[in-house]
Amino acid sequence: MPLTPPIDPMLAEARWQLPPANALPGGIVAEQKPDGFRAIVFARRDLVMVQSRQGADLSRAFPDIARAARALGDSLVLDGELVVPHQGRLDFAALQSRARHRGRSAEEAAVADPAYLITFDVLESDGTNLMSLPYRDRRARLESLFATGVLNAPFTLCPATADRATAQDWLNPAWGNAGIEGVVLKGLNQSCLPRKRAWIKVRARVTAEALIGGVTGSLTGPLSLLLGRYDASDDLRLVARTTSLAASVRRELAEHLTPATADHPWAGRRFSAAWGTRGELTYRPVKPELVAEFIADTALDAGRYRHPVRFMRIRTEMHPMQVPRFEKLGEKLGQEIRPYSG
């Protein structure tokens, strides 16, 4: 029976390093993890739809992908990652912008910033549900679709490898400059399991420094840290928020944090409670004199880390002016950022 939207996609469990080769059924294959939106594309004569991970219909926001799906000669359901390339890298901000457009503005955005589907799975072919097949068979069918020209731009094949050294290389933070966040590991004998976190995702990690500019909670019991860097105009810019701090770290930081004065750079400044939300974060500014070292993934947007970072330690030997300056890039990781090796 043909698949009916919405489909719950198969998911991945986050790990900090590559697992052993026998961690998943049949051995593992690594695929690059691009910085984009998960999407399932229905390309059938009676149904064309670009479905988001949450089940929403994105077809009107991405009319270029919908048109390409409608033009396919074969009836297919494809799983992949929607991306927008810009100046040699995948631009997540441009992708977010495209998702907000509809109608004429969506068509104009498609011309200005064309989208692509980096395809990593075929779930249905000619009305036959393939989800029960092992990954190795589905991958072979997908590669055949590209090799025979059935699939071409804006559909692209997600790179995959069974070579551990290559997978490890894809975890080099330098790939973050191109918009590759890390790798997703899949078992050769795995069927597609909706809603199950049965794959493994490993993100590239880096270490870097920033100033502690504020805390959530209190100065005597900080729950998380707001980290900043000064820009060229000497304005302290928010670059990251940490994950929740361990009790031992809270006690250590409480001994070093100093209350902010009235001239704090963030006096009266408001920040969102989470990325992409309108909720306001409740925080307390502190004197920006402590340098924090942290671990982060490579997802940067306009100089700010998209995901919460992990606090490592206070760099007591570093002066605040030694912290690298804020750069509103997001397109390129600064040279001061170092790979994290665990």
TrEMBL record:
It comes from the Bacteria. SUPFAM superfamilies: DNA ligase/mRNA capping enzyme, catalytic domain. It catalyses: ATP + (deoxyribonucleotide)n-3'-hydroxyl + 5'-phospho-(deoxyribonucleotide)m = (deoxyribonucleotide)n+m + AMP + diphosphate. One of its GO terms (molecular function) is ligase activity. Residues 9-202 form the ATP-dependent DNA ligase family profile domain. Keywords: Ligase. The keyword Isomerase does not apply. Pfam families: DNA_ligase_A_M (PF01068). InterPro entries: Adenylation_LigC-like, ATP-dep_DNA_ligase, DNA_ligase_ATP-dep_cent, NA-bd_OB-fold, OBF_LigC-like. Belongs to the ATP-dependent DNA ligase family. This is ATP-dependent DNA ligase.
